[in-house]
Design goal:
Elements lengths: L15 H15 L15 H11 L11 E6 L2 H22 L2 H7 L10 H4 L2 E8 L15 H18 L3 E5 L5 H7 L5 E10 L17 H4 L4
Helix pairs in contact: 2-6, 3-7
Length: 223
């Protein structure tokens, strides 16, 4: 490898039995995660959201440029603006933009153009992918593997929020350009998703279809 400045790699030494136990314990926690569409308006401490974003910001990424920005929205006015704009896009989606096949795939999940959770939940985390900027965020330096990097960060964000006992939902209205304007972000940032976070409403349910998961034998091969 080329000469470059380094620091020691830090990872605690564990016996295989503890590694297995830790992996299985985390598996048992994370497989309980479900997308929630029924949120309480109960407040959630900002410290939880901050911790989750710091965790997300440690995700592996192209050239260590960290090409992401998390715009955290709690203002009722901004949440209302996001809901209204998102529902306008969703209304067009369900009225004809989506194919019959796509709508049929969504039917067992019970989704529709109404998105009240965008106003009810205490926190909306709008995730932006920075196509340019580098660590200095100068708006000019090329970033690399942007979608892959931000996708990994979003997974880590959601996992941390779940570990904290929060319900989450990823929402991706299309197109999403309105999020850039509402959140005051620059043109070289692309809105990727909204992560809705909060406590579930009393009596919240999830679609039975969401419990169907592919088995290990189908999602993995061993070569």
């Amino acid at each position: 490898m080329r000469d470059h400045e380094t620091v020691p790699y830090s990872l605690p030494h564990l016996p295989d039995e503890e590694r297995i136990a830790r992996a299985q314990a985390f598996r048992d926690k994370i497989i309980e995660r479900r997308s929630c569409r029924y949120f309480s308006d109960a407040p959630v401490p900002r410290e939880i959201i901050e911790a989750a974003i710091v965790a997300a910001g440690s995700a592996p990424n192209g050239a260590n440029h960290q090409p992401w920005h998390f715009a955290v929205v709690s203002s009722p006015d901004k949440k209302r603006a996001i809901r209204e704009a998102a529902e306008a896009e969703e209304a067009e989606f369900y009225a004809g933009k989506a194919s019959e096949e796509w709508l049929a795939a969504l039917a067992p999940l019970g989704t529709d153009p109404d998105k009240p959770f965008l106003e009810t939940a205490p926190w909306l985390i709008v995730v932006f992918a920075q196509r340019k900027g580098g660590i200095a965020e100068d708006g000019k330096t090329q970033n690399y593997y942007v979608n892959e990097s931000v996708g990994i960060a979003c997974g880590m964000l959601i996992a941390t929020l779940h570990e904290a006992g929060l319900a989450t939902l990823t929402h991706t209205p299309s197109p999403m350009g309105f999020l850039r304007e509402i959140c005051g972000r620059p043109d070289h940032e692309k809105p990727l998703m909204i992560v809705v976070a909060g406590l579930p409403a009393e009596g919240a349910t999830v679609p039975a279809k969401a419990l169907e998961k592919k088995p290990l034998s189908q999602i993995a091969s061993w070569l």
